[in-house]
Amino acid sequence: MAELNFTKLNPESHLLLDQPLLRLPVELSRKNFKLTAVHVEHDKKHLLGALKATANDSFSGQKDPSETLGSLDNMINRMKNLKRKMEGFHEEEKTTHRQTRQRLEHLHNLYQIPSLADVKYDEWSRIRLNRLIADYLLRNGYNESARALAKEKGIEDLVDLDVFVQCHRVEESLRRGSMQECLAWCSEHRELTRKTSNTLEFELRLQQFIELRRKGHLMEAQQHARKFISSNVEHKNPEVQRAAGLLANSPETRVEPYRTMYSKSRWDFLANLFLKTHHELFSLPTRPLLHFALSAGLSALKTPSCHSKYASSSSNASSTTTTVCPICSTELNELARSLRHVQHNKSSVEHDPIVLPNGRVYGRDRLLEMSAKFGLGEGRVKDPTTSEVFDISQVRKVFIS
What is this structure's pTM? Predict the structure, then answer.
């Protein structure tokens, strides 16, 4: 019965790591719907106004028929452009629905697996591992490798390729010192970020002001500040005041905060701010999901003795024993050092346990057998971990309560 409970699969606990899998398609659908509504409302307002003006001018005779026909042609062309935009949005929506369907099916398959020992669970876990690896590759800029992995494993609809490719492209342009792509991204998503405490566009406009001041274009810098920066004085008064102070400080200044504002490191700040804004907008975690999975797995296996100076590991010269503990291995020992260890409610001890003077506990029979192999005489025992030798009279029996 205990074995059955141990191997029983709990799908809800697995889904904690897979929440972004469904959140992103929802956010993309919401974005698509809002952008569609914005374009329809904007063109509707323009077309109704133009149609009304054209009708009035036609009835009043202020325009000849050729001008009226020209106005109607312009309205028709505008409606055709709107239709093309709507077709593009529709294709994006179809793609999002297909991905959502595939992801729901992938998660539904988990509920059909009764046990962790089931072969189907291994297959499902392998798919998730490939997803996590692809997510890690995308977040670190290895777009082609992630695309090749997703195609080979048939998980294109389970991986957010296009979202991260666009994100990486904008991020790299900022690190190169270009703001055009990021400003275009802000313009496209302005309706979605308007109700949030988003400072990305303001920081980009401030950077444009800094670059104008760096080049010595004082008049253009002042005009830019009046248009894009001064309007934020109510909410960002300190930043606006510092921007004004730049006019009196050259790029060679050593006075703070102007020296930092002129620094090239601001481009990295803008790139990181974009990533933060992008991930918040689409409900994406800031760290790769692979990190969360590794942290949970390493913590579940880690014990207080894993990083003891007497720990049995392949990297510890003080130890005379070997271990099958993965955390004590050379590959994972340092990786897990800063993680917390799990609190185990159950523990196992060897038969007939005894405690040595140094506080370490072993099974009596195994300890005597190993001491004999070390060539010790009768009545002497050796700690296989610390290599300390004790008299058998110093050993005490342990009673588990």
Answer: 0.74
Q: What is the DSSP secondary structure assignment for residue 393, as one 8-state letter?
A: G
Whether 385 contacts 360, CB under 8 Å: yes
A 10 A CB-CB count for 133 gives: 19
In angstroms, rounded to a whole number, what is the distance separating the alpha carbons of residues 336 and 327?
A: 7
CB 374 within 8 A of CB 382: yes
Residue 340: name the closest of 293, 378, 399, 300 by CA. 300
What is the three-class DSSP state of 250? coil
Residues across the chain: 401
381 CB contacts (<8 Å, ≥6 apart)? 356, 367, 368, 371, 389, 390, 391, 392, 395
Buried (b) or exposed (e) across 197-224, using 16+ Cβ within 10 A?
Answer: ebbbbbbbbbbbbbebbeeeeeeebbeb
Give dist(CA 36, CA 86) in Å, integer: 7
Q: For residues 100 and 95, what is the distance between their CA atoms, to the nearest angstrom?
A: 9
Q: What kind and span of H or E run contains 47?
A: helix 19-60
**Cβ atoms 205, 228 nearer than 8 A:** yes
Per residue in 131-166, pLDDT tens?
999 999 999 989 999 999 999 999 999 999 999 999
Q: What are 232's two structure tokens? A: 């934020």
